[in-house]
Specification:
The protein is α+β, with helices and mostly antiparallel strands. The protein is built from seven helices and 13 strands. Strands 1, 2, 5, 6, 7, 8, 9, 10 and 11 form a nine-stranded mixed beta sheet that branches. The protein has a two-stranded antiparallel ribbon with strand order 3-4. A two-stranded antiparallel ribbon has the order 12-13. The radius of gyration is 19 Å and the shape is globular.
Length: 250
Amino acid sequence: MAALEAYAIKHDSGSKVAIETFAHLWGSHNKRLPFKCNVEHISVETSANRQRGSVSTQRISLDLKKDIARVFGEGYNHIGSFHTHPYLKEEVATAKELRKKKLFNFSHQDHRSEINEPTIQVGKHSFSIALVMTVFAMDKANDSSDGCIDSNLYELSLGNIKLWLKAQVFEHKEKSCLTDDELNDFSMYGLDASSYDDHDTLPIPVTTDIDCDFLYSGTYLEGFGRLVINDKEATYKDTKSAEKRFYHSV
């Protein structure tokens, strides 16, 4: 909901639509390896500075929310972050091009924000998790490519709005302790380990699986409205007036 609201609606007297948004993830995790966590709550950062190609938050917000979460107890542990990558046709012409360029991946800036910032401790091991949702409005609805792309990446559609949800678990290790394979894995999103000091704690992307019943069935045959959007504004026709596909429920 927050991803599409930020994509389609102007915020804070801004002149543009299709801005990024950010949220903190809350939930529980196992006490022993192998690492597993459950995302149970999401708090959108309404104080975030949201732009077309970036989003930044204030540390005071997370500190405040951590104390609120502590009061509510188990299940409200801070475990990671969520943000969006909004794209318009002026930036990428089609969903096919977006797939080819793998714009649903985390950027090197996204990966850099995880450095020295573990959120979860399991024994002597430190982790963080991140979710990114990529949003792109197509000319027409087409859900033929919906489904699982990888164990941590799903594509789905809402009318003519195409969405990609990707998850990544990072294990945080001091650079001086990394193996050659881990140094290679660190470069997955475009960062170079040689740019960091030996005492830096680097987030190593590890194999990640999303376990979510909804994503297995997706939004196939679900009716939805249509969004027409450009750099400055967007209009939306709701499902009842826009959905004409015979088999899609309204």
